Amino acid sequence: MPRATLLIDAKKVYADGSILQLKLWELKPPNRVRGSAHGLKYSLFYGREGLRILAYDNEAGKGDHVHRGDVETPYRFTTYEKLLDDFLTEVGTLRGGQL
Q1: Which end of the chain, N or C, is less surrounded by CB atoms within 10 Å?
Q2: pLDDT tens digits, the chain, 99 residues: what are they?
């Protein structure tokens, strides 16, 4: 039996070379990412080859957090819809309102 189901796997490369990549898995109980209280594993990335501008993820042991450049801050996860909305809104702001 698989430990997780892939819910989202999407990648967009913009004309300016920027990359938007979304990955979201639903973990099968009792599996959890250490440090997160929910059953999802995610990696949301915006940047360029070799340069992370913005990323939301829940790396094991760190829990839910956001990388803005080299600065890492906690993220308060509520739902995956809100997670995606928060991330895409922030990417839209970074891109001058255009996704």
Answers
A1: N
A2: 568 999 999 999 999 999 999 999 999 888 888 889 899 999 999 999 999 999 999 988 899 999 999 999 999 999 999 999 999 999 999 999 988
Neighbours of 20 (CB within 10 A): 19
3-class secondary structure per residue, the chain: CCCEEEEEEEEEECCCCCEEEEEEEEECCCCCCCCCCCCEEEEEEEEECCEEEEEEECCCCCCCEEEECCEEEECCCCCHHHHHHHHHHHHHHHCCCCC
- Ramachandran region of residue 17, left (φ > 0), alpha (ψ -120 to 50) or beta? left
